[in-house]
Amino acid sequence: MAEKLKNLDDSDMNAIAEFSVIPLGVGVSLSPYVAECKKVLQERGIKHLLHAGGTNIEGEWDELMGAIKECQARLHKMGVPRVQTSIKIATRIDREQTMAEKVESVKEKLTKE
Amino acid sequence: MAEKLKNLDDSDMNAIAEFSVIPLGVGVSLSPYVAECKKVLQERGIKHLLHAGGTNIEGEWDELMGAIKECQARLHKMGVPRVQTSIKIATRIDREQTMAEKVESVKEKLTKE
Amino acid sequence: MAEKLKNLDDSDMNAIAEFSVIPLGVGVSLSPYVAECKKVLQERGIKHLLHAGGTNIEGEWDELMGAIKECQARLHKMGVPRVQTSIKIATRIDREQTMAEKVESVKEKLTKE
Amino acid sequence: MAEKLKNLDDSDMNAIAEFSVIPLGVGVSLSPYVAECKKVLQERGIKHLLHAGGTNIEGEWDELMGAIKECQARLHKMGVPRVQTSIKIATRIDREQTMAEKVESVKEKLTKE
């Protein structure tokens, strides 16, 4: 862990994030905008999972935040005057963990009982 | 829609929500607590989907909020001194929409192009 | 703490929460809706602080969640077809803490150095 | 607005954000970590307001996100094995608006009545 801490500024941090964009001033439908964000993630080759509450992504901090910024800019380019984005982003330096492993870890707890 | 508005206080509102609990003061592992919340949802028969960023649920407002409150109380009963919970909850009165339909709606947009 | 745990179901949990409502399908301005929510809090006598990112409230869990539900319903009554609400709610059983004490606690850390 | 849209990639987007960091695996107290983040904001000269639910900041997107990333890294350097951060970030291209103006706008609505 010491090595990881030492290099934390130089290298990037691996992260798991979840985000959702909310366009204001363009009516009630969100799906065209969520679809646009999904395209951004696909173009950038970022691993992602779309669900009813948002989109989960995993990768390096800057890579994830760069993609979210592009989503925000793309929505404005589509004519959205105001965009509110929620992000939850988690990093850990004790060990590596993917999105799939997080879900797996909960399921294990449930089947052990 | 007028009928719905008129009755909004009497009946309950249907909602889609996403929530995640963060226990503080009990170490670095979240999965035992997420598993406990999953049990609460199962016991109450609430439709839910666990993913890497939280848990999605759908149903009536009070039903969903009651379950989240019980999760919070259960974590304290497991010995967690401090719990921080994030909730995103959405209601719409223009039409009904399930969690599955939300995701489907984005996918349609992508395949149409 | 044992006593508190024992009674956790019977009594209510004290909580500090922050919430923000986002009305969809009604244009770009949020302030009339935030103002309506502020009125709900005033009518119910709930201690609150409005800031640029949302509204902070403190009190018993049910009291806070009841007020948030009423905000959501009021926005629909104002004609908003779709409302997305974000909530962060925190409870602790190790000791009581008000919103003011939370901020004070950070400031103390900074002046001690 | 057309001019703004055209340049959206080149220049940066102005944003108002709110964020809160939650350190896991280091006990129940959050204030030393929130204080550390406040120092990051002060060092970088970012306008900020600390409140009970998080910290509000305003400025250019990259500036804000750079500061949040540094907070996250600093917490790890303080020995926090796992950090969960929540961010709400809003941009608008119809007009400029500061954090203070957002709050003012709600208050105006209330006094007009």
Can you describe this structure?
Four copies of one chain form a homotetramer. Chain A is 43% helix and 30% strand. By secondary structure, chain A is α+β, with helices and mostly antiparallel strands. The first copy, chain A, has a single domain (13-111), classed as Alpha-Beta Plaits (2-Layer Sandwich), CATH 3.30.70.930. The first copy, chain A, has a four-stranded antiparallel β-sheet, with helices on one face. In chain A, helix 2 crosses helix 3 (61-77). The first copy, chain A, starts with a helix and ends with a helix. In chain A, 48% of the residues are buried. Chains in contact: A-B, A-C, A-D, B-C, B-D, C-D. The B-C interface holds B 1, 5, 8-9, 13, 25, 61-62, 65, 69, 72-73, 76-77, 81-94 and C 1, 5, 8-9, 13, 24-25, 61-62, 65, 69, 72-73, 76-77, 81-94. Strand 4 of chain B pairs antiparallel with strand 4 of chain C.
Summarize the structure.
The structure is a homotetramer of 113-residue chains. The first copy, chain A, has helices at residues 2-6, 31-43, 61-77, 99-112, and strands at residues 14-24, 47-51, 54-60, 82-92.
Question: What's the story with the biggest beta sheet of chain A?
Answer: 4 strands, antiparallel
CATH topology of chain A: Alpha-Beta Plaits
CATH architecture of chain A: 2-Layer Sandwich
Q: What is the number of strand segments of chain A?
A: 4
Strand content of chain A: 25-35%
- Give me the number of helical elements of chain A: 4
Main β-sheet, spatial strand arrangement of chain A: 2-3-1-4
**What percent of residues of chain A adopt helix (DSSP H or I)?**
40-55%
Mean pLDDT of chain A: 90
- The low-confidence runs of chain A, each spanning 5 or more residues with pLDDT under 50, are none
The structure class of chain A reads alpha+beta
CATH class category name of chain A:
Alpha Beta
| Rg from alpha-carbon coordinates of chain A | 16 Å
Number of structural domains of chain A: 1
What's the overall geometry of chain A?
globular
